[in-house]
């Protein structure tokens, strides 16, 4: 079972057409199961995508893949961002379409092959910004057939993005290797939260020394490796306490704690209450 530190359950107004648009001035650290495109309408931001931090200015774009940790802090008071969040099902084919094999599968399953940012000086940026404007207009007006036109603009943006990505593949690869992507590691931790994974083992997963790994991990998540593991385990323990009748001692063991006193201490530190108190609330 996957648990969800920093996970955002993005609201979709129509589950049969899974896309939403948000106008914001900043983005708190989170991840979700959708694809997100961030457009800087005004001002400038410092954007984080996994362990990479970059400045984006007016008219520039960021592409965030599913399950990538990301945030954005405004660097000027006039900052305005447009975030388009959509599920991959909206643009993917049935499996018989050549675009599925050539484009969407490589992007979704090997995200670091593709660049995360597009600058004002990059090719196709004006065409992509025009497509963004048309998409937003259709989404806001919701005239008859708007779904088709929104999807058409999404595909147009993807097409221009993939065209750009192929030209920049060598540069992107060098930049990504330097950035130390933690996406797969964070996903592994969410899947294997109840197992014992040492700092050394985690560091090997991302080809870093343990000391360097600890610095990068704290920079990305805002927590130490141990704090992050504890947060995952406590979050899952709270869910089990509220949703099941499983004994508290068994829950502690299920989420990875071998010592129940330590489990109680960690739980209270993170939740500011005890497992017993949480269980009583569920009755």
Describe this structure in words.
The chain is an alpha+beta fold and 283 residues long. Helix content is 48%, strand content 17%. It is built from 11 helices and 9 strands. It has a 5-stranded antiparallel sheet with strand order 1-8-3-6-9, covered by helices on one side. The protein has a 4-stranded antiparallel sheet with strand order 2-7-4-5, with no helix packed on it. Strand 4 (44-49) and strand 5 form a beta hairpin. The longest helix is centred in the middle third of the chain and has 22 residues, at 146-167. The relative contact order is 0.11. Residues 172-179 have low confidence and may be disordered.
SSE blueprint:
Blueprint (H helix, E strand, L loop, with lengths): L18 E6 L2 E4 L4 E8 L1 E6 L2 E6 L3 E4 L5 E5 L5 E7 L11 H12 L7 E2 L6 H17 L4 H22 L1 H11 L3 H9 L7 H7 L4 H12 L3 H19 L4 H7 L5 H12 L3 H8 L1
Antiparallel strand pairs: 1-8, 2-7, 3-6, 3-8, 4-5, 4-7, 6-9
Helix pairs in contact: 2-3, 6-7, 8-11
Q: Number of helical runs? A: 11
Identify the overall geometry: globular
Describe the strand arrangement of the main beta sheet, using strand numbers: 1-8-3-6-9
What Rg do the Cα atoms give?
Answer: 21 Å
Structural class, please? alpha+beta
Please, what is the average pLDDT? 85
Fraction of residues in helices? 40-55%
Poorly predicted spans? 172-179
- Biggest pleated sheet: 5 strands, antiparallel
List the helices and strands in order: EEEEEEEEHEHHHHHHHHHH
Proportion of strand residues: 15-25%
Distance between the termini: 24 Å
The total strand number stands at 9
Domain HTH araC/xylS-type: 183-281
Pfam families: AraC_binding, HTH_18
Organism: Paenibacillus solisilvae
InterPro entries: AraC-bd, Homeodomain-like_sf, HTH-like, HTH_AraC, HTH_AraC-typ_CS, RmlC-like_jellyroll
């Amino acid at each position: 079972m996957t648990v969800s530190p920093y996970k955002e359950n993005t609201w979709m107004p129509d589950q049969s057409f899974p896309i939403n648009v948000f106008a914001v001035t900043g983005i708190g650290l989170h991840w979700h199961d959708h694809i997100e495109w961030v457009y800087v309408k005004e001002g400038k931001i410092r954007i984080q995508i996994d362990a990479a931090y970059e400045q984006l200015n007016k008219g520039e774009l960021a592409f965030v893949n599913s399950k990538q940790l990301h945030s954005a802090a405004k660097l000027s008071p006039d900052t305005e961002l447009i975030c388009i969040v959509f599920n991959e099902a909206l643009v993917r084919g049935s499996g018989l379409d050549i675009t599925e094999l050539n484009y969407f599968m490589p992007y979704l399953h090997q995200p670091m092959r593709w660049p995360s940012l597009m600058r004002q000086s990059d090719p196709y940026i004006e065409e992509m910004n025009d497509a963004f404007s048309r998409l937003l207009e259709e989404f806001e007006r919701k005239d008859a057939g708007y779904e088709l036109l929104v999807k058409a603009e999404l595909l147009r943006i993807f097409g221009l993005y993939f065209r750009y990505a192929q030209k920049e593949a060598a540069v992107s690869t060098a930049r990504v290797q330097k950035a130390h992507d933690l996406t797969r590691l964070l996903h592994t931790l969410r899947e294997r939260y109840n197992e014992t994974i040492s700092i050394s083992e985690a560091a090997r997963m991302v080809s870093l020394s343990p000391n360097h790994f600890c610095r990068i991990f704290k920079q990305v998540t805002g927590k130490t490796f141990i704090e992050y593991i504890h947060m995952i385990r406590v979050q899952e323990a709270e869910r089990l306490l509220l949703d099941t009748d499983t004994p508290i001692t068994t829950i502690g063991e299920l989420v990875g704690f071998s010592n129940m006193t330590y489990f109680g201490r960690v739980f209270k530190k993170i939740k500011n209450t005890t497992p017993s108190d949480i269980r009583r609330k569920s009755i």
